[in-house]
Amino acid sequence: xxxxxxxxxxxxxxxxxxxxxxxxxxxxxxxxxxxxxxxxxxxxxxxxxxxxxxxxxxxxxxxxxxxxxxxxxxxxxxxxxxxxxxxxxxxxxxxxxxxxxxxxxxxxxxxxxxxxxxxxxxxxxxxxxxxxxxxxxxxxxxxxxxxxxxxxxxxxxxxxxxxxxxxxxxxxxxxxxxxxxxxxxxxxxxxxxxxxxxxxxxxxxxxxxxxxxxxxxxxxxxxxxxxx
Length: 228
Ligand code: SF4
Known about the structure:
Blueprint: E1 2-4, H1 13-19, H2 31-42, E2 46-49, E3 52-55, E4 61-64, E5 67-70, H3 72-77, E6 83-90, H4 94-100, H5 105-133, E7 139-142, H6 155-160, H7 165-169, E8 172-173, E9 179-180, E10 184-191, H8 216-227
Antiparallel strand pairs: 1-2, 2-6, 3-4, 3-6, 4-5, 6-10, 7-10, 8-9
Helix pairs in contact: 1-2, 2-5, 4-5
Bound molecules: iron/sulfur cluster.
Residues 146, 198-199, 202, 204, 207, 209-210 line the site of iron/sulfur cluster (SF4).
């Protein structure tokens, strides 16, 4: 198990301004700069990961580091894989505490979106770190709760791989398995030749988090693969 607590994060003010459409809003020319500076002063990014081995592959269950997970998609993705990297990443709770205290709703929204950009950067950093450290060409990710097939309740199993995640990096689970701080991500990185995105199997329309188009044929192939 390794904890990373020096995760470099850089927000480009022009990009933030463009993404949040602040460049077009009258009277908000300095807002991106102000919010980026505030966000930089509030974040405490940390990550934890474990090198785990895959075992006991059954029809729709698989053991990872002796913890049993139930998900056909996870099971199929790990079919020919022996080593995976369960992880939790966070930017800490201070940014979201500050967001909640804002009276200006536009600024609160923008700071929250900046938090989303930062947690994505944390994920990307960890992925790149693992690829370099373990000399892997490409990692894909799957997270509990990202698909109906792998419910969010399995966060508990994922967290059990690490023990006291709250004590280690300050992230805990609510009774309904949501992470606190909210600006946290968890899941399993696994090596792949062809990049996998949960979004490819998710038909949800108008999702602003979509990272890849829905692929009906791919979704069908997962169903076939597991029923053969
Ligand atoms: S399309 Fe949206 S809801 Fe579906 S997996 Fe992707 S991010 Fe999640």
